[in-house]
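Provenance and format

Records in this collection were gathered into a single text stream. Each protein contributes a sequence line and a token line. The two records reproduced below are adjacent in the stream.
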Amino acid sequence: MEEITDELKKLSRAWRPFDPNADPAFTRYRWKPAELYADAISVLFNAPGLLKAEAPNFYDAFFNYLENKPKFKSLYDNIQNEIAAGKANAALKKRTYDGYDEGDEVYGEVLERISIGDRFMRDLVDAHWMLIKKVRRVGEHNIEVEKNPRYKLEELVYTGSEIEWMLSTALDQMIRPLEKVGLGWKDLGYYRQLKRISENRKGVASPEGWYKERADNELKALEEEWVGPRWEAMQKTDKAFFYRYAQVLDTES
């Protein structure tokens, strides 16, 4: 077992280089069994030859395990077949888009859980009723004045007006141009997610199994899929996004 652990540590450093002596806390995190195993599986799907070369004992043990677990072996074989057929990114794309929908559904469920009485107070008495209710539940005498959210409401209202203006501008300058060419919010979110992984998350695990090389390939595929007006609209929207983002940072600073 210790020999396999040593192999996985060596593999992890080769796959995601770092200096074990630089930060003891980070090293403890990287040496956790779950992290070592995650790196090994990432290498397995992306560079199996490297896994076999750097961690031969783990490699053999893993495939011996698969032989005794038909269900997991079938899943592994299906993933390999998808990769070989070029379908892996399509499956990831679907899961990513589905994730956006799930987020909207969860938000809707949260809104539905608000009681009729609370909705009445929020809509007809005070728009900040849910916050006021929680403050009352804790007791104002138990909250330091500078931390009491009631005293931040006026500032929040002003900030909310700024945000509303920015969102309205974003709708006019970013989303509507996309809608004219058959794209929308989720397409922009997907594009931005891929760009962030490609530009800022090299060697870092990302949601749904994305990583830099895969994101780079998917961006190239999108350029071919959205060729012409759609790709041009997305490029303009991307620039507008960063312009609005810079405005928000200037407002906060």
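Adjacent record:
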Amino acid sequence: MVRHEYGLSLHRLGALERSMSKDAHTLAFGCDCGQIRGVIREVSPATINHVICYCGSCQEYAAVLNHAHILDAQGGTRVIQVAPSRFEVTHGLDQLASSRLVWKKGGAMRWYATCCHTPIAKIGRAHV
């Protein structure tokens, strides 16, 4: 079991899969409208976890942002977990905002695109 105390979970896996860079160890990501773009560096099976999250919090957040279409038929969200040091927003940082569904100590900070309300990432306690 791998435990990431404060790992970064990216919610835009589809965008990542469609935009593999020329460097096989770097993945590009972005919001639905393209105003936010970035990269994940040093990608390998040892540095990322690909999971599908079925928690109520991820489902609720997709609904709050009017992005329920990112959920699969069973309500799962495809997520890549990565160390924050490997994540870089290269364009549109001014369009990135954060929020929490629950304001309590240790609650996950969720990042989204203000331009199109695409969920981008979550920083918080994660267990895989």
